[in-house]
Amino acid sequence: MGIKIKTRPFGEIEVREQQIIDFPDGILGFDDVRKFVLLDAHDENSPLKWLQAFDEPDLAFVIIRPVDFMREYELVVSMNDIEAVGAETAENLIVFAIVTIPTNPSDMTANLQGPIIVNPEKRLGRQAISLSDRYSVRHKILEEMKKAAEG
Amino acid sequence: MLVLARRLNESIMIGDDIEVVIIDIKGDQVKLGIRAPKRVTVHRKEIYDEIRKENIAAMDSRVKPEELREISEIFKKGKDEREKK
């Protein structure tokens, strides 16, 4: 049975319990928000998704998988982060980056310093901290795409 | 806050298995070596602050859901161009 929630992008919608992801430690700056729902954008083929807070209608992040705009991406996080989502290896985790969209959307950036990792099996999520010095809080998405296209 | 004075090459223990060594002191910069079990995470505090600040910036950017549709077009174009090559 569906659960009705209020969302920022779509108003009131019904979600399945299986769509709810627990973030036991919240997300930095939003530490008290512990439950999120992963939603497709209007265009479900868009690589952009919504990470909507379950009980705060106004709180929703735009997120993207790094592999959808980068040629190569490697998740480098501590064992502590991986174990926090109930996993033993990073293999089956889904990785997202939070997207910041300024007034000119072409300048949108993705935060790869603090990747969101989700264990779909246990429906646990966490904002990890990248241990790789290649990744920062602001990667220009369009520039990365250009690089990827140039091969 | 516990305050301890240490000299070069001296160290402190946190619990039984975390050691912090003063490796180098130059002017106002101190180099620390940290020996800890793999499960213990060590990050510069600025990293947390940067991520927190960026999360808040992402939330404040308040893109309208309709706008996201246009923005998604950018990805389609990028993909088409890649497929052409």
Care to count the β-strands of chain B?
3
Low-confidence segments of chain A, ≥5 residues, pLDDT <50? none
Largest interface: A-B, 45 and 34 residues
Give the averaged pLDDT of chain A, no decimals: 94
Keywords for this structure?
heterodimer, A: 151 residues, mainly beta, eight-stranded antiparallel sheet, 2 helices, globular, B: three-stranded antiparallel sheet, 3 strands, 24% strand
Structural notes for this entry:
The complex is a heterodimer of chains A (151) and B (85). In chain A, 11% of the residues lie in helices and 35% in strands. Chain A has 151 residues and is mainly beta. In chain A, strands 3, 4, 5, 6, 7, 8, 9 and 10 form an eight-stranded antiparallel beta sheet that branches. The longest helix of chain A is centred in the C-terminal third of the chain and has 10 residues, at 141-150. Chain A is globular. The mean pLDDT of chain A is 94. With 85 residues, chain B is α+β, with helices and mostly antiparallel strands. Helices cover 42% and strands 24% of the residues of chain B. Chain B has two helices and three strands. Chain B has a three-stranded antiparallel beta sheet, with no helix packed on it. Chain B is elongated and about 60 Å long. Classes of the chains: A mainly beta (151), B alpha+beta (85). At the A-B interface, helix 1, strand 7, strand 8 and helix 2 of A face helix 1 and helix 2 of B.
